[in-house]
């Protein structure tokens, strides 16, 4: 393992979100082949973003899949910005149990209702 400046847990969290994002894309018809034909996925999210955010890929997803991809990509951006786990609406921390169930959640339970 290499040392870097990420706070504890951040890399693991990003990896988990990426994994979920990729599995969402793989579930969709036609996308799996496209991903398989790329030789190796780059290590860094910034390098993967163009592939996973490819508009042609996204048009193959159903509405629910597109929504999930958008949420996961937004969560990855929030991790990079250091705002992940903070409610968009009220600014309070989102409960860990909620994030565990919904890693892409961007509001606390109170604001989600
Ligand atoms: Zn809130």
Can you tag this structure with a few keywords?
113 residues; mainly alpha; 7 helices; globular; binds zinc ion
Fraction of helical residues: 55-70%
Q: What is the tally of helical segments? A: 7
What small molecules does the structure contain?
zinc ion
SSE string, helices as H and strands as E: HHHHHHH
Report the mean per-residue pLDDT as an integer: 76
Radius of gyration: 15 Å
- Span between termini: 41 Å
Largest sheet: none
Regions with little confidence, pLDDT below 50 for 5+ residues: none
Strand content: under 5%
What does this entry show, briefly?
The protein is mainly alpha-helical. Helices cover 58% and strands 0% of the residues.
Structural write-up:
This protein has helices spanning 10-27, 31-36, 45-52, 55-59, 63-81, 96-101, 109-112. The chain is mainly alpha-helical and 113 residues long. The chain has two domains: 1-82; 86-113, no CATH class. Helix 1 runs antiparallel to helix 5. The chain is globular, with a radius of gyration of 15 Å. The model has no long low-confidence stretch (mean pLDDT 76). The chain binds zinc ion.
């Amino acid at each position: 393992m290499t040392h870097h400046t990420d706070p504890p847990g951040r890399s693991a969290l990003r990896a988990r979100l990426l994994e979920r994002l990729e599995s969402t894309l793989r579930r969709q018809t036609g996308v799996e082949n496209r991903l398989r034909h790329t030789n190796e996925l780059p290590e860094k999210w910034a390098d993967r973003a163009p592939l996973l955010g490819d508009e042609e890929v996204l048009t193959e997803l159903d509405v629910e899949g597109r929504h999930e991809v958008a949420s996961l990509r937004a969560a990855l951006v929030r991790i990079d910005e250091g705002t992940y786990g903070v409610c968009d609406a009220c600014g309070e921390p989102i409960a860990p149990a909620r994030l565990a169930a919904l890693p892409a959640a961007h509001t606390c339970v109170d604001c989600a209702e």
